[in-house]
Specification:
With about 525 residues, the protein is an alpha/beta fold. The protein has helices at about 25-30, 40-45, 60-70, 90-100, 110-120, 140-145, 160-170, 195-200, 280-285, 320-330, 350-360, 375-380, 410-415, 430-440, 470-475, and strands spanning about 10-15, 35-40, 50-55, 75-80, 105, 125-130, 150, 175-180, 185-190, 205-210, 230-235, 240, 265-270, 290-295, 310-315, 335-340, 365-370, 395-400, 420-425, 445-450, 460-465, 480-485, 490-495, 520. The longest helix is centred in the N-terminal third of the chain and has 13 residues, at about 60-70. The protein starts with 8 loop residues before the first strand and ends with a strand.
Amino acid sequence: MTEDGDNRIVIAGCGPGSPDHVTPLARYAVADADVLAGAQRLLALFPDFRGTRAPIAADVEHSLDMLAQYVEARQRVVVLVTGDPGLCSLAQPIVRRLGADRCRIIPGISAVQAAFAQLALEWTNARIVNAHAGLPDVSQETLAHEHAIAVVGGNAGTWPWVVSLARRLGPTHCLHLCRNLTLPGEDVIEVTADQLEKCEVRAGLTVLVCRRRTGVWCSYFAQGASRGKQVSGVGATGELHARSSPTSHLPPNTSGLTPSATSVHFVGAGPGDPELLTRKAERLLRECGCCIWTGSLVNPALLDLLPPDAERHDSSGMTLDEIMAIIEERHRRGVDVVRLHTGEPVLFGAIGEQMARLNTLGIDYEVVPGISSFQAAAAAIKRELTAPEVSQAVLLTRAPGRTPVPDAHTLEKAASLRATLCVFLSTDRIEEVVAILRPHYGADCPAAVVYHASWPDEKVARGTLANIAVLVKEAGLTRAGMIIVGHALTGAIAESRLYSTNFAHGRRKERAPRSRQDGLFGPW
């Protein structure tokens, strides 16, 4: 399972809940494990596992003791966590306890990605706010200026803050409550702040998506309804009701095409490693008749999954009109098309313009989330992007280049928020990026650049804003790298209240108080 001995522990992201969103890499790790640990609902994803099952229950301190004993006994241990280990997970308490050098992290699909995929919305420049445990250390006034926000989690203690944010955003943003994502009982609910306040605070993962209103209709696309999925709304009393039309997002069809079941699949190819594809993405590739892939970015090894007679079209040198002509013609012939995008398709994937064309043509489509390069990069450096009392928000952005950045989303304004910053497509301008960030974060702020995260030629430059530009130049890294900056990356942070013995929530009662210590889990 590991290349340097059995005394390693694998922390595997399992996605938001559906087995379709578990990656092959996670499955391979489980198949090679002696001990499988995690919540009961995650253990149920692997019914064929024949080793030792170790449920992680309410007493997390006891669970960490148990995991440490298995590791010391040189058992091969895999710990299953919900979503992606780099976002609001149990990964960091484990890394802090056992040490980064003894942990391997496998990224997974985040519930945030599933939420935006079900809403068929891009989340470029979205703010990700952690409300799992303590109150987010983010100004609601600041969030009011954001175009897209995803608030992850919520419990009895933090829900009033979530409702307060909804009231603050209500006049300017559309609010969508997403629960049980990718599962049979999935709820994707458009709400008002009043309705949100009446909603039951449930255990489990919840994502509130807030999207700024524009001059056009701002409701979500009811993708998936034609495949038998119930897409819900909220009545005046806060009760759920089904939407009446599965294709209500489509404008009048003037193309002459006959609408049919889903025939176009925007599929996230993941960061590079073929084993980080989700099971659903792999199945769609194996079954499709036509694949349009981004040859300049997607690992060509993924094409080996296609049927021998499947069409292959490299979109690197194509225009939007040429891409859409292929899709329209294949749709006429009843051929399913996989539009394969690198990483997560709704992040810098240019799928919004493609979806708009498909809406006009009356062609149904779906978005299949993929693991983004920022998640793979966080796994490579073995750090969580959110940290208690340090940073409870993650901002995904890029530096301006040939494509300009809106004034509201400049790197300067992003830096002023001092959130954990993941900068795409900007490694070739690392000196410019550092010059902008240093006044806000300080020269000693941890920074990393990960080139080709999860590829065989992956490289990591790890330093601070004082020297990261030099390290990147010396390593010869190109713009294919991911820049991550933020004080959450430091090894000395306070332990999360989420797993503290004296923090009660819906699934755990308060225990005897213990002193909260800073955790140091490996040199930066």
